[in-house]
Amino acid sequence: MSSLDSGTDWERQRAFLAVMTEGSLSAAARRIGVAQPTVRRRIEELEAETGTPLFTRTPSGLLPTERARALAEHARAMALAADAFARTASAEASEVAGRVRVSASDVIAVEILPPILAALMRRHPRLVIELSPSNRTEDVLRREADVAVRMVRPQQEALVAQRIGMVPLGLHAHPDYLAAHGTPATLDAMHGHVLIGVEQDSPVLRALQARGLPVRRDDFAFRSDSDLAQLAAIRAGLGIGVCQTGLAARDGLVRILPDGLRFDLETWVVCHEDLRSVARVRAVFDALVAGLRDYVATG
Questions:
Q1: What is the DSSP letter of 108?
Q2: How far apart are CA 133 and CA 104, in angstroms?
Q3: Which residues contact 107 (CB under 8 A, 6 or more apart)?
Q4: Are residues 280 and 97 in contact, defined by beta-carbon separation less than 8 angstroms?
Q5: Of 109, 220, 230, 129, nearest in space to 174 by CA
Q6: Rounded-to-integer distance, Cα 86 and Cα 97, Å
Q7: Is the dihedral of CA 9, 17, 103, 274 positive or negative?
Q8: How far is CA 225 from CA 50, 117, 148, in A?
Q9: How much is the pLDDT for 13?
Q10: Are the C-beta atoms of residues 67 and 50 closer than 8 Å to each other?
Q11: What are phi and psi of 229, to 5 degrees?
């Protein structure tokens, strides 16, 4: 059995990662922008080089073998390094130009950051922003992102971090919903209402329970683990749910039990210490700090 070596073609590994992610040759081909036979050939070449099958065909698609799962982390590390290399090479370190990858939670990325980034890009038209909306904490040390907005205190060393403050959350509903169903005046009265919540256990659900609302997953009439979907449901007048108070005020939503039910998310902006002298990264970092602090101050 042969093994992978330093001469392995990166394009084969791109195809391998795409199949790992998408579960089919056709979807993998669309993901990386090549023809399906090209993906098949690259996978076959990798299998010949490793001396073992990497995927098995099933009715639901291609499933990775144990060997493929063992190789995937190494290929992902190479992919991260290749993308970070390309971002670094996209402009001189002294220029506010080129690519910067920003990671933030779904709601922050979609609802809060675009105006901040738009103002920044008007000042620096050669800047290219790659925005990753994800509730997964992307690893700044591994260069999954150049700048990240985090809703937890950073623990890793080698990070530059600026604390933004506390983003307040609370229960909210659309005025149309409350006009039809009434406004609950107590926690006990909440049980007569349509509640918007999660499919699985979550920090927000535990926070609600800790603050005296004995709500369970089965109590939610609308369930989604997507914070954006929950926010959309509140805006649509479907029921009562949790969202950021700053967003709620902007949308004309009504705060429910403002004195009795509140919890906050500590917010930070972080980047790798090796990038703080790179002009484009520093410009994005500073713009996010200033813009998010303004958002917190008005929330």
A1: I
A2: 5
A3: 227, 228, 231, 243, 244, 247
A4: yes
A5: 230
A6: 13
A7: negative
A8: 39, 26, 21
A9: 82
A10: yes
A11: -65, -40
Q: What is the pLDDT of residues 217-272, one digit of tens each?
A: 788 899 998 999 999 999 999 999 999 999 999 999 999 988 777 788 899 999 88
Pairing of strands 196-197, 222-223: parallel
CB 4 within 8 A of CB 51: no
Q: Enumerate the β-bridge partners of residue 242.
A: 171
Task: Judge whether 289 and 295 are in contact, CB under 8 Å.
Answer: no
Of 186 and 158, more confident: 186
> What is the number of residues in the chain?
299
158: three-class secondary structure by DSSP: coil
CA angle 8, 11, 17 (to 5 degrees): 95
Per the listing, tokens 């998310």 go with 265
List C-alpha distances in Å: 233 to 238, 242, 243: 5, 11, 11
Give this prediction's pTM. Answer: 0.70
The C-alpha torsion from 133 through 135 and 138 to 144, rounded to 10°, is -20
Tally of CB atoms within 10 A around 146? 24
